[in-house]
Fold these 2 entries.
Entry 1:
Amino acid sequence: MNRLNPLHIIVLLVVVILFLYMQLSEIKADLKEELLAYKKSEKIAKELSAYKKFYGDQKRVQRSLQRIFSQHSLRNLKIETDYSNDGVKIQIKSIDLYALNSFMSKIFNGPYAIKKLNIKRVDETHASLELELKW
């Protein structure tokens, strides 16, 4: 019967240890990549959550719209607002161009998610406005 050479066993163990070390290093590299991807997706999720809080706060949007509607140039207008669970629809049948410019600058500069905007010219100095904001 042939005896096993201890040198062969040592070489086999070294080869197995090298193989396991290579596998471990590949797994570590994959883990680092997955950790970076997780941190990136976590950052995006936090940003989306912040945007949702900022744009989706129904009470804040209603209060800011009431402040805009209470401006001197918009007080005398007949403004129809329809609040729903999805957002608010604003209709103004006749608005002068100065008040329209003031109103639109407040809307565009504010944190509103505009779903629909329709402005039609009624005559030289007046227009009609249909605006839909969502939250």
Note: The two ends are 84 Å apart (CA to CA).
Entry 2:
Amino acid sequence: MILWSASISGPVLPLYVESLGIGVIGWSLLATSSAVGMFLFEWLWGALADRVDRRLLMLFSVLCMSALFPLYTLRPLIPYLLVLQFFSGAIGVILGPTTRAYVSDESPHESFGFFASLWWVFHTLGRTAGPLIGTYLAELYTFSFSFSTSAVLALVLACLIVLTCPKMKRRAGRSAQKIRILRPTLHTRPAGFLFLSAMFAFMTVALMRSFLPIYASEQIKMSTVEVGVLLSATSAAQLAAIPLLGWLSDKFGRRRVVGIGFSSSSVLFLFFLVAGTQSQLFLVSVVVF
């Protein structure tokens, strides 16, 4: 639900920033500010997730995000959007490590892969539904309405956390064992390749997705709702591709699939330069993302 909440206002944010007269460079600084907040604080929240009650961390995150969402539309705070973006990234990232830790604790060892995949499915469903709702509300009412809806959904999530999340299980021995196993693994060449691949993949996709709404609006002249449909379609395509990519990885090897994915994506990104119509941009976006 937090992805649903955040993705309602997330795709609207670059369009909102555009409506304020802030250019591409300004938006790049705002996107970078959020990424810096995530980068600097995710390790801290991940460490705390094994030491304090995760419900408190999750509640802290969603309540702060619920307060932050409406602040974006307050005129006196527009000069401080960089600060808001930094705190949004630093606080919103709490839910990633804490929810993954919950999945690890609550799923049987022999079924961990299934529950981890299920977590990703709901993650992607939130990213699929959010842009449609957010852009529709922004076009039907105002940008402020989209941010307020995100805030309300965050409050609903806070209630669900209190009512449904189990108390944290203390598994100090298991955590220490995981760290002992993981530490030598981190120094191996395959592990280094894996982390570097993940970093570059995230950087590339995040860069393109952050500018896609503005590009679609300014260059392709898509409406706010059409931009939402475009972003939702890219997430839906990811959901459909996950089982196929998993099967290909098992059949042909993960390294080969990753290599082909990187090389093909680097070529496909060039097609954004020649996508001059809505249908062309839609097709390229769905294939690339």
Note: The mean pLDDT is 77.
